[in-house]
Amino acid sequence: MAKITQLLFDCDNTLVMSEELAFEACADIANEILAKRDITDRYTGEELIKDFVGQNFRGMMVSLQAKYGFEMDKDEIEHYVKEEENQVIAKLEAKAVPCVGVMEELEKLHESGKYDMAVVSSSALRRVRASIKKVHQDKYFKADHVFSAATSLPKPTSKPDPAIYLHAIDVLGKKPEECVAIEDSRSGALSAIRAGIPVIGYVGSYHGDDQRGEMAAKLTELGAKVVMKDWAEFESCLKHIEEPSDTSLASL
């Protein structure tokens, strides 16, 4: 097996507790779009997370059109993509906090110098950079090591499309087997797995044992190599991938 030299971190609810803040803003905009079309359904941020977690706003709009049977032209989509980005960034700059325990792990990884580290997100680049800057994680990631499916590609896309992971490892000069991705959602995990990258699933941002257990089962079923409930488990989870003969983490 190739030596692991590259760690690829999802951002939202993996590095930064941002999903709930972002979906509050998304819900307001989604409801405006529905109201313009005389569709009476309305979303809360929590309901949007349930239906669309792991997708960026552009991907969410595609799903929303499919669900309700309407079409948005390119100009309207671009208008709302920009508006959503501005509103989400404002919320993140005011309220975002790091995921519990992640700062300690990032610092240890940074001090060790053993791995190159990058962020691979579905969210817009401005949003990702605003998130990691707000919680003081930008010192761990070089500016050109932050990748966005919404912004970094010639054609914007969203996870579970593997395009952003394939782009990131190409830019970084890595092979999939030299990398490990850390993902908290089904779409994110699928994106990395489809790119041939081993995945550590993270469920610490979900509420309650039931939600964490349910998501752990889904990520394992999709093909995550191991699932961690807390960032304190990261070192042992990474070792589990680097040394696959170690079966001690099979139940995590």
Automatic annotation (TrEMBL):
Highest taxon above the source species: Eukaryota
NCBIfam families, per the entry: HAD-SF-IA-v3
Entries under PANTHER family matching the protein: CBBY-LIKE PROTEIN, XYLULOSE-1,5-BISPHOSPHATE (XUBP) PHOSPHATASE
InterPro entries per the UniProt record, alphabetical: CbbY-like (IPR044999), HAD-like_sf (IPR036412), HAD-SF_hydro_IA (IPR006439), HAD_sf (IPR023214), PGP-like_dom2 (IPR023198)
Single annotated GO MF: phosphatase activity
Species assigned in the record: Talaromyces pinophilus (Penicillium pinophilum)
Protein name per Swiss-Prot or TrEMBL: HAD superfamily hydrolase
